[in-house]
Design a protein that fits this description.
The protein is an alpha/beta fold. 29% of the residues lie in helices and 20% in strands. The protein folds into two domains: 2-169 and 336-387, Quinone Oxidoreductase, Chain A, domain 1 (Alpha-Beta Complex), CATH 3.90.180.10; 171-332, Rossmann fold (3-Layer(aba) Sandwich). Strand 14, helix 11 and strand 15 form a beta-alpha-beta unit. Keywords: Metal-binding, Oxidoreductase, Zinc.
C-alpha cells in the first residue's frame, strides 16, 4: 500500500510499505477514505519529536471502512464506516475506567521509553514516534487499529467524511480545551493560536457560554476565519498582547486562557523569539513557550490556563511565580477523544458545529509532501489539509 512516511527533518515521502495485518484478536483493519495533516504532525516534520525513525508512517486523524476484524471484536463488522480516535485505549485499565483514554495504561508497548522523559507513560498514539508506541499512522491506504472494540466510532452515511473526520482529534481537542476552563455565562476567553484546534476551541467556548472570545495569531487569513466564527482577532505581530487584553477586559485580564499553539509558538518580539529558537535549536530547551508565558501573564487573578497545544519536554523561564501567587489553575492533557466523540457527533448532526469550515485543501495521498509544505509555511491560505487516499 501507499503511505506517507517520515524521511528526515522537513521531509516526508509517499512510499510503498507493507499492508497492515491483524496481529491481535482485538485488532481491525480499516481502509482509509479520509485522513488529515495535523499541526502536531508538523512537530514531527520539523524534527522536534524524539524517537521518530525514517520510514515511520505518519498521521493520526483518519477514518474509513472496516475491511477485517479480529476474532475478539464483536462491536464492529466488515463494511462499517468508522472514525478512529488518535489515542489508543484498552477500555479496561484504571485510566480508561475514569474516561482518561489518552492515559491508557496498557496501549503503549514502549512505556518504559517515554517514562524516562515524563515519569509515567501516556497512551500509545497512532503515527507519533516509537516512544508513543511505534504504531503506524493513518496517512495511508490502510491502517491497523488495536483495541478496535473500544476506540472507533461507527457513523452513518447521513454525514460526509468532511463533517465527521475531525472527531478523530482536533474537534474533541478544541472542545476539551474549552471545557477545562469551566466557563460560566459572561466569561471572556482568550485563545492563543488560530489554527484548527484554536478555531474549534473558540467555537466551543461560545457553545459553553462565553460572552467574548479573543483569538491571538499573526496570520491574517486565520484571524479572519476566527472573526467569521465570532471571535475578536488580535495580531501579536502588530501589538502588545498583554496591553490589548488588559484594554479589552478593563484591566482584569481574560477569565480563561487557552494555549492552542504549543511547542513551536512564535512571538512578536524579535529578541524573545530569537532567544527561544536558538535554545531550541541547540537542544537547551525543547519548547518555545511564548504563548504559554503570555497566557499566564495575561490571565485574570484566579483564572484558568487550559493547555491543549502539544508540548514534548522541557521549557525555559516559565513564570511559575505568577501561577502560584495569583492563584491560577492549570489544566491540560492530550485529549481523551473517546469521551467526546459521540456527544460531538450529535452536535454536528444538529448543526451546532460545522467542522468543514476549517478545510482549505483536499489533496490526494500522493500530494502529501505538498500538503505538509503549504500547511507549515501558511501558503495558499492553508488552514487544514484533508488527504483522500
Amino acid at each position: 500500500m501507499k503511505a506517507t512516511v517520515w524521511a528526515g527533518r522537513n521531509s516526508v515521502e509517499v512510499q510503498s510499505v507493507p499492508d497492515p495485518k491483524i496481529l491481535n484478536d482485538r485488532d481491525a483493519i480499516v481502509r482509509i477514505t479520509s485522513t488529515a495533516i495535523c499541526g502536531s504532525d508538523l512537530h514531527i516534520y520539523d524534527g522536534y519529536i524524539p524517537t521518530v525513525k525514517h520510514g515511520d508512517v505518519l498521521g493520526h486523524e483518519f477514518m474509513g471502512e472496516v475491511v477485517e476484524v479480529g476474532k475478539a471484536v464483536t462491536s464492529l463488522a466488515v463494511g462499517d464506516r468508522v472514525v478512529v480516535p488518535f489515542p489508543i485505549a484498552c477500555g479496561a485499565c484504571s485510566a480508561c475506567g475514569r474516561e482518561l483514554y489518552s492515559l491508557c495504561e496498557n496501549s503503549n508497548p514502549n512505556a518504559g521509553m517515554v517514562a524516562k522523559l515524563m515519569g509515567h507513560s501516556p497512551a500509545g498514539l497512532f503515527g507519533y514516534s516509537h516512544m508513543m508506541g511505534g504504531f503506524a499512522g493513518g496517512q495511508a491506504e490502510y491502517a491497523r487499529v488495536p483495541f478496535a472494540d473500544v476506540g472507533p466510532l461507527k457513523v452513518d452515511d447521513d454525514l460526509t467524511d468532511d463533517q465527521v473526520l475531525f472527531l478523530s482529534d482536533i474537534l474533541p481537542t478544541g472542545y476539551m480545551g474549552a471545557e477545562m476552563c469551566d466557563i460560566s455565562p459572561g466569561d471572556i476567553v482568550a485563545v492563543w493560536g488560530a489554527g484548527p484546534v484554536g478555531l474549534f476551541a473558540l467555537a466551543s467556548a461560545y457553545l459553553l457560554g462565553a460572552s467574548k472570545v479573543i483569538a491571538i495569531d499573526q496570520v491574517p487569513y486565520r484571524l479572519e476565519l476566527a472573526r467569521e466564527l465570532g471571535a475578536t482577532p488580535l495580531n501579536f505581530a502588530e501589538t502588545s498582547v498583554l496591553d490589548e487584553l488588559r484594554d479589552i477586559t478593563a484591566g482584569r485580564g481574560p477569565d480563561h486562557c487557552i494555549d492552542a499553539a504549543g511547542m513551536e509558538a512564535r512571538n512578536g518580539s524579535t529578541v524573545v523569539d530569537t532567544y527561544d529558537r536558538v535554545k531550541q535549536a541547540m537542544r537547551l530547551e525543547t519548547e518555545r513557550p511564548h504563548a504559554l508565558r503570555e497566557a499566564v501573564l495575561s490571565c485574570r487573578n484566579g483564572g484558568t490556563i487550559s493547555i491543549v497545544g502539544v508540548y514534548g519536554g522541557l521549557m525555559d523561564k516559565f513564570p511559575i511565580g505568577a501561577v502560584m501567587n495569583r492563584s491560577l489553575t492549570i489544566k491540560t492533557g492530550q485529549c481523551h477523544v473517546q469521551r467526546y466523540m459521540r456527544p460531538l457527533l450529535e452536535r454536528i448532526r444538529s448543526g451546532e458545529i460545522d467542522p468543514t469550515v476549517i478545510i482549505s485543501h483536499h489533496l490526494g495521498l500522493d500530494e502529501a509532501p505538498y500538503g505538509y509544505q503549504i500547511f507549515k509555511h501558511k501558503q495558499d491560505s492553508c488552514t487544514k489539509v484533508v488527504l483522500n487516499p
